[in-house]
Amino acid sequence: MDSNIIKLLPDSVANQIAAGEVIQRPASVVKELVENAVDAGATSISIVIKDAGRTLVQVVDNGCGMSPVDARMAFERHATSKIANATDLYALHTMGFRGEALPSIASVAQIELRTMRKGDEMGSKLCLSESKFISQEPVVATPGSNLMVKNLFFNMPARRKFLKKDSVELGHILREFERLALVNPGIDFTLISNDVTLHQLRHATEKQRIIDLFGKAIDRALLPIGTAAPFVRIEGYIGLPSSAKKRGYQQFFSVNGRNMRHPFFHRAVMDCYQALIASDVQPSYFINFEVNPENIDVNIHPQKHEIKFEDEIFIRDVLMAAIKESLGRFNVSGAMDFDVEDAPDIPAFDPRAGIIAPDTAVDSNYNPFADTPSTARPSRINSDNAPATHNRTPRAATNWEALYQNFDNERAASLDEVRSSALNNDDSEQKEVSLPGLTAIENDNAGHCIQLRQRYIVMPSQSGLMIIDQHRAHVNVLYARFADGGLSGTTQRLIFPDSVELTPSQSASLESMADIAADMGFDIAHLGGGTWAVNGVPADIAATNPAELLAAMADDAAATGTHDTAALRSAAALALARASAIRAGRALSTDEMEALAADLMRLPAPTYTPDGLRTIVTIENPYIDQLFS
């Protein structure tokens, strides 16, 4: 009986285990093959995709090519031309170095490679399947490499089964393509999916590459940054605060031409924008770091996305200084909401002017809370040193206690009564009462709501004073209705069909939720590339801009991170709610305010929107009492 139980795994099994870490989906194949082409010195790279990578991932480059022996050795585990010993790991100038990518891919797919070195008369064709050598023969080829990965995960049915549908996997490929194209602006890139050219990029500057990938509109929203320090050089672009988005998918870091994810540096960028943007949005950024390869460690994760910096805190400080300097140099002001219409005119400071003492006087007998205040009080001293007076009209005392007596008992009935009122009902006669910063509307059914700055609804409650953000409140209400299938599904046909241009990533995300959009009442059609036709919209929201709505739905779907039907429906419902909700700046009648408050209070979680934004703030009675104590 053999008592030894430890066995050496066959190479095929070991390669499949390695493939589980390196090759997770077709996008991983694209990443590894394109990085190999970059390391080979290619100036032109074409990527051909069939069925979102399931059937074919083909990468064609004009790099240095390989000899027949090198072509065979490239598929052996830990065979690489990038490093020779352990010390080379701390002086890397290439994307790959482990020698794991090609053997891992070959273990889960069928491989056909055609390659030829510049100057050779003949190339070599190599075929493998499940890491097993099939054939190798001389062939006519062009300088460079043409590697085809066919039937990915054909020998791992469980792994192939758990791939997402084509539109989702194509979305992952597009996002990986964007990362690769951004860090290599000097290389021509072409991406073809099912015989349709999605991207055709020519070598360009970094900014032009960003525009080519994300559209011309981003050109007006970019600010350059650049600085140099003893241990790091930082260059790139950041987005204007006004262009910040609900989802931060246009955020890219790279170091020495290698993509990376770095939460510590991301937090530093967000801190620079803290006083300039709302808490629910994030800025775009495209930032490149150049450091000595000896001061970073890329050998942390098989996918090489995580990178450790030796001088991390110092580089963080340099990054923040560069961003703040750029925001200040271009006179970027924060997205702060100040009422400046009635602001006093502040004169410019004149150092030659003398100092004049204030010419004011105080009436110690004046009582602003008296029921019958005096009709005159000193205000300013006139030229005769006599107090000037202002007539003050007596104001009748208001019995606030009687006004709010039994308010909480009556509110439920009142809110139920007005709930059926449409939010856009303007039939009742309205009389606006203007106060600084306040607009109260009186009519025959006047309630107890006051609109503040045409943005907030202020109303009393048992615990104090309740302030409701009208836009977020309506988003909450509409989301609950849309997510629970509250849309009728009826389509309102557009007299003039609209069209919308989406980026390839947005287009792939929208395609993944096309069935959900159709159930909601959308009539959309993909015209090819990033162009979509909008022939009809849900009748419930017919007044919404369809182009903006589709772009928002695509963005939310791309940012969910999951691709199941429930998650996509939730993303679509939230996008619909945001686009359809009443906006800040719209005056509401008392009935509209009370109807909105009633609908909000019926929700299970009225105090926050689905994406975590606060809807209601309550100023407690003890705090109000403290203010007057």
What does the model show?
It is built from 18 helices and 26 strands. It has an eight-stranded mixed sheet with strand order 5-4-3-6-2-1-7-8. It has a six-stranded antiparallel sheet with strand order 18-19-20-21-22-26. The chain has a five-stranded mixed sheet with strand order 9-10-13-11-12. The protein is globular, with a radius of gyration of 33 Å. Helix content is 31%, strand content 24%. It is α+β, with helices and mostly antiparallel strands. Helix 6 (166-183) runs antiparallel to helix 7 (206-214).
Shape category = globular
Assembly context of the chains: single chain
The total of helices stands at 18
Number of strands: 26
**Roughly how much helix do the residues carry, as a percent range?**
25-40%
List the uncertain runs.
Answer: 333-346, 373-398, 407-411, 416-447
Structural class: alpha+beta
Strand content: 15-25%
